[in-house]
Amino acid sequence: MKIDSRAVDGISVLDINGRLTLGEDTAAFRRAIGELVADGHKKVLLNLHDVPYMDSSGLGELVASFTRIRNSGGELKLMNLSTKIRTLLQITKLYTLFDVQDDEASAIRAFSVSVGPTSPATVTRG
Questions:
Q1: Which of 10, 36, 78, 121 qualifies as a cystine partner to 41, CB 3.0-4.6 A?
Q2: Which residues, at least 6 apart from 5, have a Cβ–Cβ distance to it below 8 Å?
Q3: Which residues are CB-contacts of 67 (< 8 A; sequence separation ≥ 6)?
Q4: What would the pLDDT profile of 82-93 be if each residue is shown by its tens digit?
């Protein structure tokens, strides 16, 4: 697996090439996400165009990355899903968890219209 990182309009884009499966692939993916979070990147876009296959371990890493980025106050979006990956996310009911965009332009626009976490309401007790 090969992961290239680039920035577009303040968004960290990871271009992933190869299978996302148990072993070194998921470890490399976990490290790449960890580095982005550690460096304070809040907007992450995963380009899955060149990911032909993902096993349950890869799917688990995708969910863990979503959680990690969300817990750090950020957003994770996916783009360019192959039919196989799209079907996998639909079968596992995870498609609704992720913001999935068809192309990079749509994904970049989706970040600008995303609403961040809302502030908790202040309750005054008297």
A1: 36
A2: 12, 13, 14, 15, 32, 36
A3: none
A4: 999 999 999 999
Contact 14, 3 (CB under 8 A): yes
| pLDDT tens-place string over residues 39-89 | 999 999 999 999 999 999 999 999 999 999 999 999 999 999 999 999 999
Q: Which CATH superfamily is domain 2-113 in?
A: STAS domain (3.30.750.24)
Q: Which residues on neighbouring strands pair with residue 43, listed in sequence order?
A: 75
- pTM, 2 dp: 0.87
Question: In what side-by-side order are the strands of the sheet with 99-101?
Answer: 2-8, 11-17, 43-50, 75-79, 99-101
Question: What is the C-alpha separation between 105 and 114, in angstroms, rounded?
Answer: 14
Which tokens in the block code for residue 32? Answer: 């790449």
Instruction: Please name the residues in contact with 3: beta carbons below 8 A apart, sequence gap of 6 or more.
Output: 14, 15, 16, 17, 28, 29, 32
